[in-house]
Fold this protein.
Amino acid sequence: MLVDRLWPRGVRKDAVGLDGWIREVAPSAALRRWFGHEPSRWEAFRHRYAAELDDLAEYWRPLADQAAHRPLTLLYAARDEEHNHALVLKDYLECWLHGHGPR
């Protein structure tokens, strides 16, 4: 499942087999610009993005439901594998699932 707000540069849409593209769960444009993939802002970014996700349940809830029943792969275009929004989203979904369990 692609979870970026923008389609990755240089990737043709017909060249990728995706289950879906949920751009609404990506960080807001303002938060993405503020973070700028600057590792020193990582912890603050994690908290700010989680706060945004709190208001986006209608978009991330189907991902959580899917993850409760089968493997879910979150795809993203960021080069940094340690400081990207997909990691925050993964942690957020796991935390929610542990607190609420599968349906």
Observations:
- Residues 85-100 form the longest helix (16 residues).
